[in-house]
Structure formats: C-alpha cells, structure tokens
Specification:
heterodimer; A: Rossmann fold; four-stranded parallel beta sheet; 14 helices; 50% helix; B: 2 domains; five-stranded mixed beta sheet; 8 helices
C-alpha cells in the first residue's frame, strides 16, 4: 500500500506542477513543444528528440486573453492563450495547435499575435479523414508540422525514429487502457487520483509515464480486489480535471469506472499499425479514430459507444461534463441524451468552465443524481 | 406522533415546514435572507414557537437549498431538486412536471407515475429566467414583487423584451419607459420574458401534464399565466409553492425517522 501511495503521490505532484516539469526538461537541455488539444501528432515530436507537453489550459481568471477572444468562447482555448501571454510557457520552442474545432482555429490565429515569442505550428486535419484523400491530407499536414519543427528546432525527422516512437506510444496506449480497467477493482483510488494518472501523461516523456503506470498496475494487482460500495459512473466530455468537481464526485461516493473524456481515454483507444511506413501508419491511425465530438461522424456512433460502455461497466449513469461554449460537445449531447434515455441510463449534464469558482450547481446536480438512482 | 422539520435555505429566502406524521403541515415560516444570513435560524425558531413544538420533540431535521450543507442544526441534507419533487408530489400526486423558479436558478423536474424523479434540468448560470431577474426589474419601477403582478394584470399588451441578459434587459426596459411605453405593458413583457426563458428549459425535457410551478416566482400570477400561454398547458399552483422544498425536506426527515426506527427494531 505504501508503494501505491508513493506512486499516486508522484502522479499528483507531476499533474499539479506542469511548470516544474517544463523547468526540469529545459534544465536537461531538452527542447519542449507544447501540444494543444485535442489530438496532436505527439509521436512525430517525440521521434525528433523533442518533448511533447500537453497544454489544456488551467483553472484561472482570464484577463489578457480577452483582448483576443469574445467572452462566449471555450475557456480551455482562452486559458491556453492566457498562460502563453503570461509567460507560463516561456522556454518552450513552439506550440502545435490542431484545427479540430472553431475555437482552436481562433486560438492558433490569435497565438501568432498574442504570444509572438513562441512559434505557432498549425496542424490541419481533414473533415473527411477516412477515405484515401483524407488520409493523404492528414499525412501532408504531418509533413508540414515536421518541416516547421525542423526549421524551428534544428532537429531532424526520420522514418526509423518515428517507427520507434510509434511503438512507444502504442505501449503507452495499452497501459492507459489497462489502468482504466484495473482501477475499477480498487475503488479506494479517488476520481482525483485517477485524473492525476491521466493528466501526468501529458507532462512526462511517454516511456517514463508507461513505466510508472505499469508499476502502479503491478502493485494494485498484488492487492485483493476491494468490495465495491461506490456508485459507478461513466464520464464524458472534453475535460474533467477540476479538483473541485472531482471532490464533489468523491463526496457523493462516485467511482469513475470508464470515461469518454477527450483529455483522458479518448487519446488511447486506437493504436498505430506498425506494418509499413511509419508516417502512413500515423495518418491511418487518425483515420481510424472515432467516437469523439471533434471527429466528423455522420452516424454519431459515439452515442451508442457511451451507452454500451455504461452497460458493460455496469454504470449507474453517465455524467456529461460539458465545457461551457463547446459547440461540438453540445451538438453531440442531444444525441447522447436520447440514446441514454432509450437505454434507461441516467445522463446528467454538468456545465464546467476554466473560470468557474462556484461549484454549487454542480454539487446540486451530482447530489440529486445520487439521491434518485 | 412524529414531528419533523424541513428547512429550505435558498439564495434569497429561508423557509421552514413542520410536519406531523409525514403528512399534516403544522406550521410554516419564511424569512427574507438565505444562506449566510441569520434568517435560517430565525425561520426555524419562528416555526417552532408558532407551532408550540419544542426542538427536542422533533424526530429529525433535514436541510435543503443552497445553504443546506452549512446548516448545522440539521441531521442530514438533501438536494433541493429531490425535495421539490417530494413536496410537489405530496400536494399534487398527479404532477408529472415541476417548474421550480427560485431566486437564482430555475429547474425543471419530470416525475414518473409513482412520483419518483425521472429527469431534471437546471438553467444556465444566468440570472435571466430567475427570481433575480424580477428583483432587478421591480427595482427599476420601485415596486415590490407582489406589485409587479398587480401591474402586469392591468396590461393591454405585453411589450417585447428582447434581451435575455438581465443587465441589457434592464437598459431595454429603461429605454421603453423613456419612449413613453405604458408601465403595465412593460411589466407584462418582463413576466413574459421570464416565462419564455424558462419555457425553453421545460421544452428540453419530455414534459407532460399535470404541470405545476413551485418556488418563489410561482407566486407571481402573471408569470404563471405567461407560462401557460408559452407551453399551451394549464399550470397547477398551490399557495404552498414557495414551501415545496421545505415540505419535501420535512417528508424526507419523516422517511428517515421511520427507516431508523425500523432498523433499530430489527
């Protein structure tokens, strides 16, 4: 148990201190590339000897970024810009911002003017990612990212190196899927600690994170499975890392037994096929990704995916963590809600915002859900 | 006899209900001032003194509302949504949809045939469509909330208030008055605006009749009438509307007492 606590503490320390991690990498003489949500080709960055570091904003008061954004835009994008303007990312070599939603497109364009000391590298994804043309488009965009990274950092890209990185990322995907499943049997691990494990993945070199998660899995498996008296839930949304919100889950005896959070498990669902050209494999991976609000899907299979996850995991309900002003998630919500209603699974929306200080409404919603299941 | 007390500590008022044997209302009290004020204690002391029930005779106290977690006199707390559902079902057993408009938020609750909560939605974090919107508007006219209703019923037509934002709506109302619009017509427009905003929330649910309103804003007949027009259904209303949360809390307190007695007998 002591070892488990040590590991959980390590995850927490890393998740709560991104600046320390950045400082550590810079002191080691490493070049760091910021990776904005939702999907950046981290494998490419890693393969070039650079450190990809996820930047998903922070819970903070937004002031400077308001010069560039209207109030009614996603606070994740706003807080990333705010952090850039306030110097949180000083020392970072460049930022890769994908074009997966309208807010992110604006973030990229605003970044050029608001944070001129950190170069912006656009990653433009195709809307139709599954057909041959879409896959070629994705590959061409990756090549553009590679060209920019080479120009800015002086590092060189090679297929061989990418093939190695792809393997490292596939292994990481596997351990992240495993830990999500293993945690179900150990409900003493809180929602907040679960989030630390996922959040720290963005702030460490992947091979090191893999090793740490593997250690946790090994230690947990040595313990007998706990009798589970918690209320099992599935979470869905873009981001659910607010400590205040996660504490509310804990106060109400909830256990996250599976998630459809973009910041968490959505990252790890699809592996790269290693049976050919590494860059082709990476482009193919993107084409195979699904069940996400920012990935175009005319059939909206995500709704059934969530219902199925809730059934398989025997969850009492689905908590939709809705980032305020996130259009893609709001479009999907109506379809997910309908699918959950048909399956008689409670589907509860909880609106969150990076600038939120009062969680009373979230508390009332979660408590009401618990009181009425 | 089992006496239980429910207290609903909202954002602007504190309400208490004392129940006998889980069904008979012995007394109620209400004080302006909600969480963070002395009103919760005053409301409790008043209802106890008016009913002659001493605190030691209460089997249980359940708190609800935004101040529920900080009220130390209660043995337990329940969310206001659960309590409104319970309270309304007690008064209107056939109710399927509850529209609860409080001081700072609005909620819609769907009930099953058995009176259990089937679904609920809360408003966005915005004053529009809440009691706070009416407070701000009443302030412009230097009227009380009750007087808003009286004035609205004198209106020949409801002036359209197009802004959903409370701050901008305030400017719009002032502009309407400056351009010589009749006060009653403007007030009717304000009531219409609250109803329109909350009706949109109601339509997000699979609402069915009987529809009933609870919470402080339900007292305003002009809002109720506008809501009926918006939704095309008749709205059930009880003079106890503002006490539904406290009533539900008192019923939960009774249920809790029975459960504890059953457990101790086992």
């Amino acid at each position: 148990m002591e070892k488990i606590n040590q590991l959980l503490e390590e995850f927490r320390n890393i998740a709560e201190n991104p600046s320390k991690q950045l400082e550590k990498f810079l002191k080691q003489g490493k070049k760091v590339i910021a990776c904005a949500p939702v999907y950046t080709p981290e494998e490419i960055i890693h393969s070039m000897g650079l450190i990809p570091m996820g930047v998903w904003g922070a819970d903070m008061e937004i002031k400077e970024a308001k010069s560039y954004f209207p109030a009614f835009i996603c606070s994740i994008a706003q807080s990333i810009l705010e952090q850039g303007q306030k110097g949180y990312f000083d020392g970072i070599s460049a930022i890769v911002i994908p074009s997966l939603c309208d807010s992110l497109k604006c973030l990229g364009e605003n970044w050029k003017y608001a944070v001129p000391n950190i170069p912006f590298i656009p990653m433009t994804y195709p809307q139709n990612r599954k057909n041959e043309v879409g896959i070629e488009f994705t590959k061409a965009s990756y090549k553009r990212v590679i060209k920019d990274l080479e120009r800015i950092t002086g590092q060189k890209f090679s297929e061989e190196s990418l093939a190695k990185s792809n393997k490292i990322y596939n292994e990481h995907n596997e351990v992240m899927r495993q830990i999500s499943d293993v945690l179900v049997d150990y409900p003493f691990i809180t929602a907040s600690q679960r989030n630390d494990i996922f959040k720290s993945a963005y702030l460490m070199e992947k091979e090191n994170h893999t090793s740490l998660v593997k250690s946790l899995i090994e230690e947990l498996k040595k313990m007998p499975k706990e009798e589970n008296k918690k209320i099992k839930v599935i979470t869905s949304g873009i981001l659910a890392d607010s400590k205040n919100l996660l504490e509310i889950f804990e106060e109400n005896n909830l256990q996250i037994v599976g998630d459809d959070i973009a910041h968490e498990s959505r990252q790890y669902r699809v592996d790269i096929k290693n049976d050919g050209n590494a860059l082709d494999g990476l482009a193919l991976k993107f084409s195979e990704m699904d069940n996400c609000s920012v990935l175009f899907d005319v059939d909206k299979k995500r709704a059934d995916y969530i219902v199925n996850m809730a059934k398989v995991k025997n969850a009492a309900g689905v908590l939709m963590i809705m980032t305020k002003f996130c259009d893609p998630e709001e479009f999907d919500y109506a379809i997910i809600k309908k699918a959950c209603e048909e399956a008689k699974i409670p589907c509860i929306p909880i609106e969150v915002d990076r600038q939120m200080v009062n969680y009373e409404q979230a508390k009332t919603i979660v408590q009401t859900f618990v009181e009425n299941i | 006899m089992i006496y239980t007390l429910g207290i609903d500590i909202g954002s602007t008022t504190s309400k208490c209900v004392i129940l006998q044997d889980g069904k008979d209302i012995l007394g109620t009290s209400i004080f302006t001032g909600g969480t963070g004020t002395s009103s919760p204690i005053k409301a409790m002391e008043t209802v106890l003194s008016e009913t002659g029930i001493t605190k030691d005779r209460l089997s249980a106290i359940v708190a609800t509302g935004y101040g529920r977690t900080t009220f130390t006199q209660a043995q337990s707390q329940m969310s206001e949504l659960s309590c409104h559902a319970k309270g309304v079902h007690h008064v209107f057993p056939l109710a399927k949809t509850i529209i609860d408009i409080g001081g700072q938020d609005a909620k819609v609750i769907n009930l099953s045939d058995e009176g259990k909560m089937a679904n609920f939605v809360m408003n966005d974090k915005c004053a529009a469509g809440t009691g706070r919107f009416l407070d701000v508007m009443a302030n412009i006219f230097q009227l009380t909330i009750d007087q808003l209703e009286t004035e609205a019923f004198k209106a020949e037509k409801a002036v359209k208030i197009s802004n959903t934002c409370t701050v901008f709506a305030e400017s719009e109302v002032i502009s309407q008055l400056a351009s010589g619009e009749n006060i009653s017509n403007v007030i009717a427009g304000i009531c219409q605006s609250v109803a329109g905003r909350v009706a949109a929330l109601v339509r997000r649910t699979s609402f069915q009749e009987d529809v009933c309103m609870s919470g402080g804003v339900a007292k305003n007949g002009a809002v109720r009438k506008a809501m009926e027009k918006e939704l095309g259904v008749s709205i059930k209303y009880s003079p106890m509307a503002q006490y539904m949360g406290a009533l539900g809390a008192a019923i939960y307190a009774y249920d809790k007492t029975l459960k504890e007695r059953m457990n101790s007998n086992e």
